[in-house]
Description:
α3 packs parallel to α7 (187-200). The protein has helices at 18-30, 62-73, 83-110, 112-117, 128-148, 156-174, 187-200, 207-212, 216-229, 238-241, and strands spanning 2-6, 34-38, 51-54, 57-60. The chain contains 10 helices and 4 strands, in the order βαβββααααααααα. 57% of the residues lie in helices and 7% in strands.
Amino acid sequence: MITLYGFGAGFGLPEISPFVTKTEVQLKMAGLPYRKERAMPPASPKGQLPFIDDGGEAVADSTFIRAHIERRYGFDFDAGFSVQERAQAWAFERMIEHHVYWGLVGARWVDPVNFAKGPAHFFDGAPEHNREKLREDAQFRVAENYLLSGLGRHGPDDDVALAARSLFALSVQLGDKSYLMGSKPCGVDATAFGMLAGILSPFFESALRERAEGFPNLTAYVDRMMDKYYPEFGWTPLRQAA
């Protein structure tokens, strides 16, 4: 039995982290039984979530977990793809994780209202005398990484505009297909779904969410993926929320 370590449900989502969501969906895609436990990043071999324990072997980072699943269990997330299609899927995954992700970080962690509503509560269990300092330190570190990512060097309108260009690219790639690469979900769909659901969750208000809502095929895609992989979760379809 594989144990998946993540943050758990929150922010109107079945899993707070888009990267944990990616791994959880890929475990579901591969049909592998697993159990899920809550953890915090320091527990991980790489200081980040997700990580898994597979028969005593710890594997950290969603991309390396995917490679582990493919190697150990012989499951190909991109089965039937040509070399070119596999390259395209990889390129979109990198765009999502290294560009769109930072737009999500800015909306959740840098925006003071959203930070107070969401990530600040990660520290509710800390000793009261130290709680605020932990919150301030964490927000500062994330904001610093946001700056170093490049997206945070721009004004609040420009960074959203840049992230929205990547959303436009995803929308164009999806087109009228059910999934990013065709009629059935593949590895990159787990990545895209985790990130887009995080952006589109009604829990947070943000300019990035407003821009994402302007792509009807992306909102329908998130609803479709949620229904397929988290049918038990009380998700209000985005078309209804709108």
